[in-house]
Amino acid sequence: MIRVGLTGGIGSGKSTVARILETLGIPVYYADDAAKQIMNTDEGLKREIRKHFGEASYINGQLDRKYMAGIVFKNAEKLELLNSLIHPVTIRHSEEWFSRQKAPYAVREAALLFESGASARLDFIIGVYAPQALRIQRVIKRDGLTVEEIKSRMSRQINEEMKMKLCDAVIRNDEQELVIPQVLEVDERLRGLIV
After folding, report:
1. How many CA atoms are closer than 13 Å to the CA of 110, on its beta-carbon side?
2. Are 143 and 155 in contact (CB under 8 A)?
3. Among the four residues 31, 73, 175, 191, which has the most C-beta atoms within 10 Å?
């Protein structure tokens, strides 16, 4: 089975591409969703988060996301620390998930695929590209964040053009080209790699 990564900046349309792949019968591991779950279920990780961010990190055993966001999105070192705790556990969890898949290929969807080091364990990486102005519009509409908040989050990711150069295939989600035919083309290419 081919292990595929799916990445792109905030608002690029990774989730849209992932849902199209799922309709083609391809299993998708959503790293952000998994990380949210793992931060509430992995006792070792919970202990580490409490140790570094205080007991207020959890309320009734559940991560206080608002409290944590207030810390990490204002302090790059704290965000880096949190990522250094979460990424290894999430990568290990995704490796276990990959080992259970039976499809021709399976996909790990993650914004920080290169930044987390998860890309090293993958055979093929798909990038989803959209211009920054369009990505900002999408995130404002989807999440209600301000332009400043979005740009702050974007600044913590690898430059979008550089990220796309690191990918094996790029899907343009810029409202100029149809996305589904591009996904079908990449799907056909991946299925062609299977021996």
Report:
1. 27
2. no
3. 31
Given a contact cutoff of 8 angstroms between Cβ atoms, the answer to whether 57 and 68 are in contact is yes
Instruction: Report the C-alpha gap between 21 and 27 in whole angstroms.
Output: 8
pLDDT of residue 73: 80
Task: Determine the pLDDT at residue 195.
Answer: 62
Q: Model pTM?
A: 0.89
- Tracing tokens 């509430």 back to the chain, one arrives at 40
State phi, psi for 126 to the nearest 5 degrees.
Answer: -100, 130
Strands in 52-181 per DSSP E: 58-59, 62-63, 105-109, 124-129, 169-172
In contact, 71 and 80? CB cutoff 8 Å: no
Instruction: Show the CA angle centred on residue 94, arms to residues 120 and 184, nearest 5°.
Output: 75
Tokens 């202990």, located at residue: 47
Residue 4 and residue 106 in contact, taking contact as beta carbons nearer than 8 Å: yes
pLDDT higher than threshold 70 for residue 160: yes
User: Under 8 Å CB-to-CB from 4, ≥6 apart: which residues?
Assistant: 105, 106, 107, 108, 122, 123, 124, 125, 126, 190
- Which token pair is 96? 């276990």
